[in-house]
Design a protein that fits this description.
single chain; 350 residues; alpha+beta; 13 helices; elongated
């Protein structure tokens, strides 16, 4: 067995583990700091919205030897506006210029043909109205709202409302961080970005639901035993799925990272950045929130219940009594424990 596999087996059996729940306030602090940074970046720098949202014109040229920098200079001189130039796989250029109407686009096209030494008929010009981008944004917000509502309803029915609330907070956390990174790096926000943001929501939920399922099974009849508190069972559930979460996240990040760093960076296919950055950051944030945020939040909400408070008192009392008798912690309060352990492990097999 590999070292990682051996570690996963030990985590699964509860032989080793990290106290995620006990150190939750450290990770809450880290998340709050990252979230505040993201919000400040959004407030100060804002998002670099693509032409699909602002409106303007997109000019596509045939294969040319003109460099991107030279084409950008010519386009900005011809239009009086900032231009975004991308090299296409065909050897041509894609030139985006915002805030152009039909007449202005025709003038810019003629000037570009002259500056780039091309026939005007060879340059394709597409106009994008800002109303179209507004429709996309409205539909995206609507889809996001419907998705959130359905998620909360489903998790409240399948698990309980506390888990639904924790999952919702984790999703908002992931979205805020991803959008904040876009503001920090200045990548263009396009419909591809929106698709990427919606995609990461499902992945973030996947890891969260796996842990919640183990926690649900492991906490059945929890009040009938006095070996573990709710927070300890929750921590065992997280540790039991930790290696699985790491493996699935790494495997998912590798192809997305190839799109972002090789396709968008090394090969210069800038349009890949639109979706790959949101996927890369969102996948990483989703794995982080599933482990460090969602389950600890459930514990904070659950342990406010009188039954869980009473259980904690009984567990601690049993341990204190066992310590006074010189017994080990594992020997304290064993009634009902085997059933809870079995349920917790069966839940993690799913």
């Amino acid at each position: 067995m590999s070292k990682l596999g051996d570690l996963g087996a030990k985590l699964y059996r509860g032989e080793v583990g990290y106290d995620f729940v006990g150190k939750r306030f450290v990770w809450y602090g880290v998340s709050i700091l990252i979230t505040i940074t993201a919000i400040v970046a959004l407030a100060v720098q804002g998002l670099n919205m693509g032409i699909e949202f602002k409106g303007g014109a997109v000019f596509t040229t045939p294969k040319t030897t003109i460099s991107e920098a030279q084409a950008r200079e010519d386009a900005e001189k011809a239009s009086g506006h900032d231009a975004v130039v991308q090299k296409l796989g065909t050897g041509g250029l894609r030139i985006q210029i915002s805030d152009l109407n039909t007449d202005q686009a025709a003038e810019v096209k003629a000037k570009l043909a002259t500056d780039l030494k091309l026939d005007a008929a060879q340059i394709n010009a597409d106009l994008v109205g800002p109303s179209w981008g507004e429709q996309i944004a409205n539909k995206a917000w609507t889809g996001l709202g419907v998705f959130m509502i359905l998620v909360v309803i489903y998790l409240a029915i399948a698990f309980e409302w506390r888990m639904a609330v924790a999952a919702l907070i984790a999703l908002i956390h992931d979205l805020t961080i991803t959008v904040g990174v876009y503001a920090l790096v200045g990548f263009e926000v396009t419909p591809g970005t929106v698709i990427g943001l919606l995609t990461i929501l499902g992945y973030s939920l996947y890891d969260t639901v796996v842990v919640f399922d183990g926690l649900k099974e492991g906490s059945k009849d929890i009040t009938k035993q006095t070996r573990w508190t709710y927070s300890e069972i929750a921590n065992r559930s997280v540790n039991g799925t930790l290696v699985r979460s790491i493996n699935t996240t790494v495997v998912a990040l590798l192809p997305v990272g190839a799109l972002l760093f090789i396709g968008g960076g090394f090969l210069g296919a800038g349009m890949l950045n639109d979706i790959s950055l949101s996927l890369f950051v969102g996948l990483a944030a989703g794995a982080y929130s599933s482990i460090f945020i969602a389950t600890p939040l459930v514990v904070d909400l659950k342990e406010r219940e009188p039954a869980m408070k009473a259980l904690k008192k009984r567990v601690l009392a049993k341990r204190a009594a066992a310590e006074a008798k010189g017994e080990s912690a594992d020997e304290a309060g064993t009634e009902g424990a085997p059933e809870v352990v079995a349920q917790g492990r069966s839940g993690r097999r799913r």
